[in-house]
Amino acid sequence: MPGLRVARVGGVPVVLRAPVLAGVVVVAWVFAPLAARLGGVPRDARSYLAGAAYAVLVLACVLAHEAAHACAARRAGLPVAAVEVGALHGGTRVLGEPGDPRGEALVAAAGPAASLVLAALASAALLQPPGPGRLLAAELVLTNLLLGLVNLLPGLPLDGGRLLLALLWSRGRSRADAAALAAWSGIGLAGAAVLVALAAAAARRVPLAAAGAGALAAALLAAGAARSLGTLPAAVQRGAPADDPDQPDEPDQPDQHRRTST
Ligand SMILES: [Zn+2]
């Protein structure tokens, strides 16, 4: 899948994948009515521009989250091939796996920790009078809270799934067994999320666009979990590199691993 390298930070390429445009459209579509209702933006093209601006802010928050994973991976001695942003998620392509449960947990926890710290810092700006500054602070708090908390759900490919993997691994299971259980947990979470989105839409409790975005996020989660099951080292594909088919422009790397967040 085509990607655009927009920067290189500390030697690590930052890549925007083509679906990022779909993500911007979905976020702008969902956020435009909220910008009109909560931000006082006229309900015309300007509300969609405000939605698109919010989508860019979301991308910046995702990049900050992934940068934290990349820093933690490097501190654990693992090379980082790239930090990527896709439709409604990001990913940090780490070459190799942490050698023990503690390293696995530290790399996994770094992203949500960064998001929650950013949410806490931005919350201080909520005390200012109503205006663009407070709206921006509210957006930062909401986005980073979602990034931090959703990613802590205990199923692969979310960070919480990696924390579950590390916990099961530390309790004596093999890494492959722990990864399989965490991946099945991710598939279960995705199914539950689809049911919640359908029920909320049927009960008209959320806008149809928001339910659709939730269902799309659940589909991405299910695909990521299935991908985790298909790329389990040793257990399923012993000897086969878990390379990223999205990266035809880079040489295959053994044990290449991709972390994904929503
Ligand atoms: Zn993450």
Explain this structure to me?
By secondary structure, the chain is an alpha+beta fold. It has one domain (3-261). Helix content is 59%, strand content 12%. The protein has seven helices and five strands, in the order ββααββαααααβ. The chain has helices at 20-38, 45-75, 101-123, 132-150, 159-170, 175-202, 208-230, and strands at 3-9, 12-17, 80-85, 90-95, 256-261. Strands 1-2-3-4-5 form a five-stranded mixed sheet, with helices on one face. A hairpin with a 2-residue loop joins strand 1 (3-9) and strand 2. Helix 1 crosses helix 2. The model is unreliable at 234-256 (pLDDT under 50). The protein binds zinc ion. The site of zinc ion has 7 residues, from helix 2 and strand 5. Its cofactor is Zn(2+). The chain crosses the membrane at residues 14-36, 48-65, 105-127, 139-158, 178-201, 208-226. Residues 243-253 have a biased composition (Acidic residues). It is a multi-pass membrane protein. This is Zn-dependent protease.
